[in-house]
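Priority: medium. Attachment 1 of 2:
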């Protein structure tokens, strides 16, 4: 997207979160809120982004790294002031469009951002506002229209009168402006409101009074508008995002037995005809093949890759682990930093001791191996092809079990060896 620079407003303290962490760094299904905003902008083709940081800016800068440019708003004088600070990075000669988006609205879809920019460009408006109609508009800026038509003003909730409070069309906090018009209007905005802040939203009335054109795009999906201001807003956004993810997986051919108790983070791939049973949590960075059976009560963490027809049952935790086709890990097991081959059976209560207190070590279990119940495998260690580890056995680190061997006891000793 040429000639569009985005400004993410993220300097606010997030007072209502009652937290030491900057609001936009709180996790929404495992990923910081602001990352969703950056991804949506990138997916809409907007690559030139300036983040306005303030409260907790070193933390924010570290988290975002080089993904956006930065400017610091030292005194939190309001969303309008935040946009004024960004001008230093934008350059005073910039004559393109500025897309402003709040860092606390992670559910705005990239398609919507594209629509907003397109409408803005095609109409030649000074400002194009993203709006939504909400059953409960409490807390949001309300959209005022002349004769119910073109937008004339945004009224913030704390300034709203009785007749304005009942307006159900709200300001999502995402707008596209002609940069010149935006900064011209911002220059005359005064902090004459109850919060004593420079409201970005006051720009709309100023532009309207000058006879400039204001356009709007109404989001069809009202849940996209959620602005996270407190912990219950975070939970609300989490529920919406969770449903979006589960719906798209179900559409692609995955059975989710009980969506209410299943949490799947963004960035999880699951093959068709896989069944996810209740009370399962699957975190970002997990790939699951076709026809697998997961849960109930399974937890799959980052870096897990399951081939086809793998079974992972109740009270199993997997992290950074690859599992081959048809392997079964059915009960009370922890596998971390493991590579498990095809047709392996992992008995109930098997534990890989992957962390030695200093570093994480690898466990390799080759094709067709059988691990008995309650086995403990102290990494780094390898169990060879079609080997058997007896029930309750402890396999010490570096004491690899040869292919075809059967080991038992604590520490493991070989009692049999077959050719494989
Ligand atoms: C804001 C809008 C409101 C809209 C709502 C949508 C204003 C005045 N109001 O209200 O119309 O319906 O978002 O969610 O903009 N920020 C700064 N610097 C500051 C103050 C705020 O960067 O000095 C940032 C915050 O980090 C936040 C964003 O601006 O990401 C909006 O601020 P917030 O306090 O959440 O405003 P809302 O009351 O939600
Ligand atoms: Mg907000």
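Attachment 2 of 2:
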């Amino acid at each position: 997207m040429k000639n569009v620079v985005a400004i993410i407003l993220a300097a606010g303290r997030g007072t209502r979160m009652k937290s030491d962490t900057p609001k936009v760094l709180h996790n929404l299904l495992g990923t910081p809120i602001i990352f969703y905003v950056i991804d949506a902008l990138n997916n809409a083709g907007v690559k030139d982004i300036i983040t306005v940081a303030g409260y907790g800016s070193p933390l924010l800068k570290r988290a975002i790294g080089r993904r956006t440019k930065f400017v610091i708003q030292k005194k939190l004088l309001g969303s309008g002031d935040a946009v004024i600070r960004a001008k230093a990075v934008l350059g005073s000669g910039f004559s393109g469009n500025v897309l402003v988006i709040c860092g606390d609205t992670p559910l705005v879809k990239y398609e919507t951002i594209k629509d907003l920019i397109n409408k803005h460009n095609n109409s030649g408006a000074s400002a194009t506002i993203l709006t939504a109609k909400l059953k409960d508009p409490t807390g949001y800026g309300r959209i005022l229209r002349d004769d119910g038509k073109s937008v004339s003003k945004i009224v913030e909730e704390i300034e709203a009168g009785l007749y304005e409070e009942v307006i159900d069309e709200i300001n999502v906090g995402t707008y596209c402006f002609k940069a010149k018009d935006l900064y011209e209007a911002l220059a005359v905005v005064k902090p004459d409101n109850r919060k004593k802040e420079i409201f970005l939203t006051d720009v709309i009335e100023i532009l309207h009074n000058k006879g400039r054109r204001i356009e709007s795009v109404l989001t069809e999906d009202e849940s996209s508008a959620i602005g996270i201001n407190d912990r219950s807003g975070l939970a609300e956004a989490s529920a919406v995002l969770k449903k979006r993810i589960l719906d798209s997986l179900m559409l692609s051919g995955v059975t989710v037995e009980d969506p209410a108790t299943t949490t799947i983070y963004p960035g999880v791939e699951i093959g068709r005809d896989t069944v996810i049973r209740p009370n399962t949590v699957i975190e970002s960075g997990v790939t699951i093949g076709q026809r697998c059976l997961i849960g109930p009560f399974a937890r799959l963490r980052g870096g897990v890759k399951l081939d086809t027809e793998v079974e992972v049952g109740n009270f199993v935790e997997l992290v950074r682990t690859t599992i081959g086709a048809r392997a079964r890990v059915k009960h009370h097991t922890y596998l971390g930093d493991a590579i498990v081959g095809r047709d392996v059976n992992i008995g109930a209560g098997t534990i890989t001791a992957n962390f030695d207190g200093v570093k994480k070590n690898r466990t390799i279990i080759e094709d067709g191996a059988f691990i008995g119940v309650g086995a403990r495998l102290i990494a780094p260690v390898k169990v060879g092809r079609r080997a058997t580890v007896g029930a309750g056995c402890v396999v010490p680190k570096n004491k690899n079990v040869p292919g075809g061997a059967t080991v038992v006891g604590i520490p493991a000793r070989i009692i049999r060896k077959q050719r494989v």
